Amino acid sequence: xxxxxxxxxxxxxxxxxxxSIAQKLHAVQIATASSVHHAAQSLGYGExxxxxxxxxxxxxxxxxxxxxxxxxxxxxxxxxxxxDGHDLVIHMKxxxxxxxxxxxxHMLQFLRADHTDWIExxxxxxxxxxxxxxxxxxxxxxxHGFSKQRICRQxxxxxxxxxxxxxxxxxxxxxxxxxxxxxxxxxxxxGIYVANSESHSYRMTALLTIRGxxxxxxxxxxxxxxxxxxxxxxxxxx
Length: 238
Hints:
Number of strands: 3
Strand content: 5-15%
Radius of gyration: 27 Å
Order of helices and strands: HHHHHHHHHEEE
Largest sheet: 3 strands, antiparallel
Number of helices: 9
Strand order of the largest sheet: 1-2-3
């Protein structure tokens, strides 16, 4: 358990350097007297960062506030809002080591074990209680180095994937040419995470099935909790 009132960080987290205005102006002074490279090497900043400060030196000098104060840095003797934050980070790292997804709902499930009263009290003091709690947990994850999913380059182009699909289709119909289309099913299993459910926030499994003649079958949902699914919400629901 982490000591109440003392903000601790798990090992391996590197926090970004946040120099004050006075430190930036000092770097600008050295860069002007010698070179940007010399200022960056002697003070430990990146050359691109020092070069940007040199370009913005007029703005830095005209800053009306305290040039020596650092904003949003370190432990300002503030008591952490989330209880047992250190244990929560360890739990999140354990999920990652098991190649499991880490979502705000998973974090909330961990806190429910010992801090139900805190959760209810937090939601009761916010205008949008549950959404505010999820937003708080999301910021907590960002602050401790848990990155979001990002769009990345596909390993294969869409043309290659389409060619593979056509090749498999020709192979299948050549081998099983006598199979009727209304007896052929294409099923795909996918995971669903319910992010806005207060009662059941864990993973469900959905089985999507389409028949060879184009007919869509009802979605089969597998979950520990009892789910009520409305069938009249969308016109496309089979």
